[in-house]
Input
Amino acid sequence: MTAIELKERLIVKISHTDNEELLDQISRLIEFEEETEDIYILSPDEIKMVKEGIEQIENGQFFSNEEANRIFDKCLGR
Output
């Protein structure tokens, strides 16, 4: 099936449904696909930071989620 045939088939099915939840989900999928088409190019500084982060993880220099939450709670005075 070609892309054109699939589009035509979907248009017919969409036009015949009154299921608002289904239509909402279809709309969200289409919006998500449109948002993810853009490719973000990292700057040299961002690439450097990512590499540093990977190196830190490989060296065990990270906090677990629980540890990070405790640190944030302490900083926020909770």
In short: The longest helix spans residues 20-35. The two ends are 58 Å apart (CA to CA).
